[in-house]
């Protein structure tokens, strides 16, 4: 009884969400610092784009393949516990890498293994957080809450390169990893402090009940039965393929074009993070467009054209800074608008399964794009864009020649294609009119009660 009273005294609603958010700001800052330091270490050891792209492949692939089963566990289990497990697993893998590095044993394949483990448990975090927002807040605040979550990630990325660059000298990579470990503890502590309610059962939840594999497939059945939801995710599926090809080699492109200048890489990444913070702040205050589908489709167009394509066409720091800022400015608007649509339309007690099926569809091509990105850059486009080659004579006037030019060409072409994906969504009524076609889950639930 005393325990129940104590639980009821813990923060709920926006106060609880803000407490979790603060913990995530700290955790994401530590994670971004260690990722930046490990990116530099990997490129210094190998000098190739492929290992960096492979890190992304090993992180995303288990999350995609296991996503439907993770969604079942999230819906069956406690949202708060799932979030804590994700943060604890991230801390454990950081500890493993730190021990390996400090003992002089760290190798590239160790990072492939640890990011695979991180990817598996990271899969629990996103659907659990998304469902938690639906449970803690009214739907009018979904856009702002999603904007705050985007701001947490982007604000940490603003300071991470600066802090990592300043601290890696006195602390070394091992010290940066220790900071990341402490930040994971802070995130877990914030979750312990709040109360997150469990969802009520709905008709959709009862429809999806059954054995484990039936429940795992339910998210796909739910989406396939609703062409508007499937259409929205198809936009992300195709757009992510084009974006994934380029951004897998972003760091080696900048390093290759600047003679391994870590300061320029950090500046460009910080500019992108600042753009993300400004976009997320705008989303948090504004809440997104009234018709959220415009935030999704026009956001994709703007990100592809003003961010990705311009980044490839640029050959100097000011252009890279501007492109990264503009591209990431629209990203929170795209993701926040899309997330708000799904949170409003999908019942909370099935969001784990549906959101992981949704992620599976959107991310299905990311492992493929990350597998292709490194070899395409190292073996095809980089040699082809060397000075004097026929391809360089055609495209060199746009992206330059020499080291990094092949990867820059990847950015320019795929950015234009990603922009066209966003515009293409308007040609399909099921996507264009998704918000009118789909009924909000709270309206359905009220109808059931009647």
Explain the overall architecture.
The protein has 450 residues and is mainly alpha-helical. It has a single domain (2-449), classed as MFS general substrate transporter like domains (Growth Hormone, Chain: A), CATH 1.20.1250.20. Helix content is 83%, strand content 0%. It contains 20 helices and no strands. The chain has helices spanning 2-9, 13-46, 50-76, 79-102, 108-136, 142-192, 203-207, 212-224, 227-247, 250-257, 262-286, 292-313, 317-345, 351-363, 366-384, 390-399, 405-424, 429-432, 434-437, 441-449. Helix 16 (390-399) packs across helix 17 (405-424). It is globular and about 65 Å long.
Proportion in β-strands: under 5%
End-to-end C-alpha gap: 33 Å
CATH topology name: Growth Hormone, Chain: A
CATH architecture classification: Up-down Bundle
Strand and helix order: HHHHHHHHHHHHHHHHHHHH
The count of strands amounts to: 0
* Number of DSSP helical runs: 20
Mean pLDDT: 83
* Count of separate structural domains: 1
Radius of gyration: 22 Å
Outline the biggest β-sheet.
none
Which class best fits the helix and strand makeup?
A: mainly alpha
CATH domain class name = Mainly Alpha
* CATH H-level superfamily: MFS general substrate transporter like domains
Poorly predicted ranges:
1-7
Shape: globular
Share of helix among residues? over 70%
Task: Describe the secondary-structure layout.
Elements: H1 2-9, H2 13-46, H3 50-76, H4 79-102, H5 108-136, H6 142-192, H7 203-207, H8 212-224, H9 227-247, H10 250-257, H11 262-286, H12 292-313, H13 317-345, H14 351-363, H15 366-384, H16 390-399, H17 405-424, H18 429-432, H19 434-437, H20 441-449
